[in-house]
Every structure is written in C-alpha cells, then in structure tokens.
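Tokens in:
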C-alpha cells in the first residue's frame, strides 16, 4: 500500500515529536511516552504510555520507511509495535479472539477510572500493525492487526469498544464495562477511517458489514451533533444536550467537517456533505466584532469573541457594556447564540437590537435573569447588517465574559468544503470567501453554497497560476452535483484565471480542477 493509504499524522516521526515537545518524549527503548502535567502544579509531570499516541508515532515511522527505506524509521516502527505487542490484553468472546490496549490512567473529564479502552486507539493501533505488516512482511504484525480491529466487533458490555443499536454501530473513544456511551464524534469517525483502510488492505476479512453499520450509526446520530452554531464534541450522558461538550472553531469543529467530507467522498451519501457544509459555515463566521470596552484589550479584547473556546474570551467589568457584530452586508437574521466563560460571568440582563446602517437600531429582545452559559435567542426574520448586545449585568462576577457570538441568518455564509487532503486547520476552504483566499492543491475540488456570499457567488478566481483545466457544476441538491448535468469547462491561460459560475442550476456548486501551478502564492477566491 502507498504511504498515504494509512490514517494518522502525515508528517515525519521527528516532526511528530517536535510538534509536541513538552508533551511527548521517548523512553530508553525509543518508545513514545506522554508527559501529563498536573493542572494545579505545572512543574510536576507523570509519564504515561498512551496507546493511541504510540500508534501514531509508529504510523509516521512506517510511512517514512515506505517512502525512504531508512533504517532509523524501521527502528522507530519496531520499537513501538514491540511495546504494543507486549502490552496487548487478549480476550475471547463468542469464539472471537481480540486484543485490546487498556489505558492505565484516569480520564478526568469523564471520571473514567482505569482500566478503560478506546475504539479510537484500537483503530490507530490496528492501522500501525497493518502498515507494519504491509511494509515489512512480518506475519505477527498482520495477526495483531486483525485481532486489534476485532475489538470493534465486540460490545462495550463484553469488554469491546462498540455500542450496537438496530443495524447501527458506534465506536466509543472511551469504553468500559458498565460505563455509559459517551459518543465522541471525532473518535468514532477516526475509527471508521482506520477500519475502512484496513478493509481495503485485507478485503478478504469479514469487516465490511461492521463498517456499513458504523455508517448507519453516524447517519442516525449526526443531526444531534449540531448545536446550531458549533458541532458538539460528545454526548456525555450526565449532561443535558445543551451542556454537551462543544467543538471550538479552528479545532474539533474543523476536524469534524474534514472527516464528514471524507465520509461523503467514500460513501457518496450527500447527507454527510450537508452537515460538513453546515459545520463549515460555523468555522467561517465572516463577521467583525467590536465592543465598548474590555478588561484587557491585549488578552481579553473583542477578538476573543471567536468561538475558539478554551481560554479565549472577552471580558469587561464596566456596566452597561456593549458588543456589536458587523456582518459586512445586510442579511436576513433570525437569532443569536451566546457562549460565556463561567456561570457567574454569564450575561444576566441584556438587550438585543439590530440595524441596517449602524445608526438607527431597532430593539428586538429584552432578556432578564439569564443564567445559561449558552443561550440562543430567536426573533422573526429581520434584515440587518449590525446586531448589538447591550449587557446590563452578569451573575455576580462583576466582569462579564463571552467566548463567542453567532448570528443566525437565512443565508449560508462561508459554507465550503474541499478535497479532504487539502483541508487543514490553518487552510480551511471557507477562506475562499475572503480577500486572503484559500490555498488549493494542484488538483482537487471545492463544493460550496452559491448563497455563501450576499447576492450569490458569480465567479471563482485562481490567483498565482496561468495553467490548468477547471470544470464547474451547479445543482439544486448535492445529489445533482454528482449527476453532473450542468457542466461548464474552462482552461486557464493567464493569471489570475477567472472562471464564471453559471447562472441558475441551484445553490450547490462543484468546482474541480487539475494542472494548476501549485506554488506558495496560489489562491482561490470566490466573489460576486
């Protein structure tokens, strides 16, 4: 198999270590260890062996070995796989033998005590063994790969990593007998990617039906991972749905849309494309936020109202204070979602108003006694460019905070996905709607909503290339794109290369290209 066939980090093993210095190291046998620091005392750390991270390190080495044949890469690969072979726990259920790799430390967030196992880790470890077997021919690695992926066939109640339903399967990132199903989306999708690559490597195995059930499970539950302004990270049972973990922008939300785009590529099911585009819209809010003041403009200014989450938040201790969202154009708005940092710093009493010109504001809502850190307030569809939030008080912190605001619009602003290998956190295709533009590969494709810009997208411009062939399809539905009924072809002969988007045909647009000059200055921009 080619090196890129296998899931996992697409970087060299040295880069994998260097990108996480302070977190990763190697022991005297060359096996990757993780330094987990106590949050209460940053100087202390404990060394742990994390099976998923060890597998990732092995996969990076395996790729390098396939590409270069370097002895150093083979040494790293064998060190990781030898450790995994020694630490595998062998079990048998219903005549099926499987291997699992228990975690020996607590997952504090979920209060999950050891030993526990992970479908996410099983898929990465299985992939490491499969890649090792394919590149070295070692039969022990092949047997280990089969038995490692076999854990995905076993329910969590029997010591496996899968929650089964009516013709559905969900691979749990954190599993233990008697522990509730957490349903972490990225972990499930990663396990699916690993299983698919394994099936393609060993098509004679009986894992295809399991993959089909996992696709069904994703389809059944995907809608419940949509918070309306971000994707959810998990479905942790002790919490109410509105308290489930959120996936921040430039983080897990980005990962979700990349994974769903790849699932659409593999299955051809447009349902996954629709949600990839929806999560892409959350990734590219395309608005400007200003405030009447900040506790610290450097560390807690209005630029921190960005839905990145974590410790990114705006704060202000002077009341009343205001937050103004400029959408850049007039849109049909119908609500706003707010995410605060803590219970006590949540906006309690506040007013909402909208404006077309930024001068005259129309009052819409007067909210009192709010205590919810996540709050969505709706209104009848109203044209607006500006949305203003006047905060009168918080819940006792005397320093109000906001991690993000999201204005709900009828238009799907900034919704775009692309060839999965060409998407990354720093280069999301939603940038094609901005002046900066998106850096595309030499060959690839982009799917976007024509309504991603007010008035509609009318052209795609390739900057930094004077060659290439471009095909444009438009359709009312994603399925129509696949049919390629309305297809227009163009050839670039000068830079910039402007390709018109045909009028009519529907809101979904598919642009495919090949033969571009893929230099560092190459950019794709969508415009009116």
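Residues out:
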């Amino acid at each position: 198999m080619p090196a890129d066939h296998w899931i996992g980090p697409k970087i060299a093993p040295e880069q994998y270590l260097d990108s996480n210095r302070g977190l990763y190291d190697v022991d005297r046998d060359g096996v990757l260890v993780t330094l987990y620091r106590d949050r209460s005392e940053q100087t202390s750390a404990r060394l742990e062996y994390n099976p998923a991270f060890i597998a990732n390190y092995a996969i990076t080495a395996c790729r390098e070995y396939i590409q270069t044949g370097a002895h150093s890469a083979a040494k790293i690969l064998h060190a990781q796989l030898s450790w995994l072979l020694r630490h595998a726990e062998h079990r048998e259920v219903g005549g099926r033998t499987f291997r699992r790799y228990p975690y020996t430390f607590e997952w504090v967030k979920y209060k999950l005590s050891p030993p526990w196992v992970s479908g996410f880790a099983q898929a990465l470890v299985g992939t490491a063994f499969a890649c090792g077997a394919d590149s070295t021919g070692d039969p022990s690695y092949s047997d280990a790969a089969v038995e490692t992926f076999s854990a995905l066939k076993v329910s969590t109640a029997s010591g496996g990593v899968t929650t089964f339903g009516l013709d559905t399967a969900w691979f749990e990132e954190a599993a233990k007998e008697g522990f509730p199903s957490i349903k972490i989306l990225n972990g499930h999708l990663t396990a699916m990617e690993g299983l698919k690559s394994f099936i393609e490597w060993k098509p004679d195995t009986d894992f295809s039906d399991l993959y089909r059930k996992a696709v069904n499970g994703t389809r059944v539950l995907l809608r419940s991972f949509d918070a309306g302004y971000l994707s959810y990270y998990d479905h942790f049972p002790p919490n109410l749905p509105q308290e489930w973990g959120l996936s921040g922008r430039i983080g897990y939300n980005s990962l979700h849309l990349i994974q769903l785009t790849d699932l659409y590529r593999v299955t051809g099911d447009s349902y996954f494309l629709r949600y990839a585009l929806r999560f892409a819209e959350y990734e590219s809010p395309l608005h400007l936020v200003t405030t009447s003041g900040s506790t610290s403009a450097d560390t807690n200014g209005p630029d921190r109202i960005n839905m990145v989450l974590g410790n990114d938040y705006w704060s202000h201790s002077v009341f009343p204070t205001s937050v103004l969202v400029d959408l850049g154009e007039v849109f049909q708005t119908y609500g706003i979602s707010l995410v605060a940092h803590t219970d006590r710093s949540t906006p309690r009493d506040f007013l909402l108003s909208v404006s077309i010109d930024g001068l005259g504001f129309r009052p819409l809502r007067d909210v009192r006694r709010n205590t919810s850190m996540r709050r969505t307030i709706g209104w009848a569809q109203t044209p607006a460019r500006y949305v203003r939030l006047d905060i009168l008080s918080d819940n006792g912190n005397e320093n109000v905070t906001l991690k993000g605001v999201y204005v709900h619009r009828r238009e799907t602003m900034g919704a775009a996905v692309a060839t999965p290998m060409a998407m990354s956190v720093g280069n999301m295709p939603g940038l094609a709607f901005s002046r900066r533009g998106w850096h595309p590969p030499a060959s690839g494709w982009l799917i976007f909503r024509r309504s991603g810009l007010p008035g509609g997208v009318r052209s795609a411009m390739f900057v930094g290339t004077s060659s290439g062939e471009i095909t444009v399809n438009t359709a009312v539905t994603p399925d129509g794109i696949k049919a390629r009924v309305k297809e227009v072809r163009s050839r670039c002969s000068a830079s910039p290369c402007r390709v018109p988007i045909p009028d009519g045909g529907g809101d979904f647009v598919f642009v495919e290209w090949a033969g571009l000059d893929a230099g560092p200055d190459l950019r794709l921009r969508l415009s009116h």
